[in-house]
# Entry
Amino acid sequence: MIPGSFSYHRPASVADAVKLLSDLGEDARPLAGGHSLVPMMKLRLATPAHLIDLHGIAALRGISRSGNNLVIGAMTTQHELLASEDVAKAMPILHEAALLIADPQVRYRGTIGGNVANGDPGNDMPALMMSLGATYRLEGSGGARDVAAADFYQGAYFTALEPGEILTSVSVPVPAAGHGSAYEKLKRKVGDYATAAAAVVLTMAGGKVATCSIGLTNVHETPLLATDAAKAVIGTSLDAATLKKAAAAAEAIMAPAADARGPVEYRKHVGGIMVTRALQRAAAKAK
Amino acid sequence: MNDLTPTREQRTAALEGMGCKRKRVEDIRFTQGRGSYVDDIKLPGMLHGDFVRSPHPHARVKKIDDSEALKVPGVLAVITAETLKTVNLAWMPTLAGDVQMVLADGKVLFQNQEVAFVVATDRYAADDGINKVVVEYEPLPPLVDPFKSMDKDAPVLREDLVGKMSGAHGPRKHDNHIFEWTVGDKELTDAAFNKAEVKIKEMISYHRTHPSPLETCQCVCSFDKIKGELTIYGTFQAPHVIRTVVSLIAKLPEHKIHVIAPDIGGGFGNKVGAYPGYICAAVASIVTGKPVKWVEDRIENLTATSFARDYHMTTEVAATKDGKVTGLRVHVLADHGAFDACADPSKWPAGFFNIVTGSYDFPTAHLAVDGVYTNKAPGGVAYRCSFRVTEAAYCIERAMDILAQKLNMDPAELRLKNFIKPEQFPYHSALGWEYDSGDYHTAMRKMMETTGYAALRKEQADKRAAFKRGETREIMGLGVSFFTEIVGAGPSKNCDILGIAMFDSCEIRMHPTGAGIARVGSKSQGQGHETTWAQIIATEIGIPADNIMVEEGNTDTAPYGLGTYGSRSTPVAGAAIAMAARKIKAKAQMIAAYKLEVHEDDLEFDIDGFRVKGLPEKFMSMKDICWAAYNSVPPGMEPGLEAVSYYDPPNMTYPFGAYLCVMDIDVDTGVYNVRRFYALDDCGTRINPMIIEGQVHGGLTEAFAIAMGQEIRYDEVGNVVTGSFMDFFMPTAVETPHWETDFTVTPSPHHPIGAKGVGESPNVGGVPAFSNAVNDAFSFLGSTHIQMPHDFWRNWKAAKQLGAVA
# Structure
């Protein structure tokens, strides 16, 4: 539990950080909140020769409104996200989910950018960002580009980030007024990753589901958008048969690993239940 | 006497003696970060050691190449079994009569076994060094399932024991067999079963878990070559035993070994035994002439130092149709891992498991325990319980519930029917113990009345009906547990560790100004001894507890004691403290008689001094007596006011309690909610009710963890898969239920102050309460026994197997 030696860099701008990353190559890793990288380093599963600490870059922090989007700087902590009235009002599901991430101490350090960029299937924010239709801004030596959250995740710890790129912000479209949302997370204890979790964002019209997106956490090597499950509930009033159909459609795309949280069969089963419960709770909140 | 004269109540309260909710004096430093733990010790020139560990559960070690490691800046030495052989320390004796590799000698026998010890100038360099040691292994087939240990074709683990058909505890049946231990009357028990009207039989497993104290095991060893003296600072629950063991195995004179246990951050049995880290740090210090620190990390602690439990108990109860028990038969398969390193009194290979008849009047019983080797970490320590007592309590408390279910009786009623009656004490159990005192019926009825047990049963019946009608997906369980512990090891007639009787000790020195110091052979790991020991003395001699300093853990100053584990401190050390205090009091009485010019028989002790009988104004306070002890003692008497007592207890003590757990389980997810938990403890005389309550809270939290998910689990090829707090269930305040505590008081008749000990009762009684609640919840669906741990997915699996989930 003792990391190997490394050099420490603290750039003051994104440009400097990007330059360091491209100069130092694959031996360099950006450091955000450190809650994934540092434990990996202590176990020597990660042995970067250079750490590029992003805490010195003021431009990476803060939440602002840009048109119909909320733009969240990558170094914004979960705690800052929780403190934001804009977030609580416009997209309560982010507020709800952030409260389920670990404990206050972790949330003071853990960042949105680190949470979504690391590609850890256990992290909660990626599935939420997918279901909210968020995009990520990636900056590298060749300039900036935007990638949809739904296109970002390629495998466990594999993402669309190219070598030398840093995820600098997350842009989230504000959901329609009167939408309903819910994040249902089954976990063994505070601080644990989800055994299975489901994010639902929907709108209702005349007692029936008008639009719906469903994101799934930790039931596959990447976060998932459960498109078929979402389709199955459109135009329904979420009757028992529909809920069952949606849960089954969601379970069909799950491929969790068996681990101490339970065997595959259990994790899929409770994944379906999380979908059902999130749908019901989101619908109850929709106006 | 005037208005300013304190009343008797005020004088008593000023002492803060027994019965007072005195605030813990040690917490002033603990809560302000001012404790001094082993890792706080930094000696000049101190080096750091760290282990190369085996990735394999079973393999031959072909070659260890340290050449690259020695090139790492700061790395000074790499110690292997070959190095240790030069000082005859490649193997060490265990407390259970076995031997254990200090470093892998030819083979590794469990994953994360210690293979080499890298010594470096700092911890970073040591870790860099272990990553450069190249070990060549030849993997061997692992033996993981204890039920296959004695198969004909099982791989032989302990090549050092091949052909030795007798071990420390008698004959061995197989190369992987350690011992068979039998107690009780087999013929009489078989006869009881032959004519039984009702019988139950169940294999009840108590899974492998771990004490996991917040502070891991660690030491600093410092050898002074000029003086030839070895000083060891360490996380030791039994410092004097460590000193004797080191003297015996390192061949150093015992007076030249100084063992110091500073503040300890929890022990729970994990810090009783001797570990390879201690030996390697000592050898490294002797070799380098510099102090060497070894601190294990969380993964090492969970995977390599002393697990607990791993008992597989095939349990049979014979009874009459109306529910009177007539016989108990238990066979235990005990998985000891690669070496038998159980921390039990030496003659007790399965500890005091023969308390398995519990609180019930079994006319006959028979017990057999087979210990076997597997490719798992060694240990088998008493995790917050007296030796194997929690396994025994779990076994009998599950069995009583299973019998109640078979008889269609209420489990509380079945227990009431079979309890040992108050008039039967001292009670001789069928498996050989003499229970000192108890009033089980009163405790059980108090629990039932306070919790509204009958109403809860009614609510459960309604909920079950609603579940069957499909109106709810939640089931409700009531977990009844009534435990009897056996603690306070122990009487020299049946308890020793490596030949040293399990007494304990106290030395009290009163200073001229009426303050004093008490040094005790026990060693607090958080139990609050500095607070409670002073309370005993305060009541016994009438000096305020605040004026008594309690010191433990330094073998040069404390009298020889056997340490703190198995709830033995209050029953044994607590008695020694009272007896030493009484010696002080006896001398004080003679001094007071001399000063008051009366015969000592004319004096009576009155709270905080001696008073002449019939002359209330003739009084001498203990404070004044202390002063007199240093300037005007009676002619012929030695000055000073000191006493030492070594206490060999005449019997164990038998605390007991009645617990109830009310739990709801969502069958669709297996998620449980402990709605209510009530714990009534009878630990005899209560020294500090606040500390008792804290002890009960802590023990219940551990019991909750164990029953509901805390497990050391190996996969089928011997990889340990629960090596961190991510997967090893350590509940936080969020998961922990609310605890309701209660008590009755049945003093121990043989203990000087009637106290029985309490620290471990809640762990012993709590585990069956939780497990019985889960089992009770599922029983109406047709199950008789569901194995622990009862984590979410296993609850769901049970529901699914019982047809409650599609």
Remarks:
- The two ends of chain B are 81 Å apart (CA to CA).
- The longest strand of chain B covers residues 307-319.
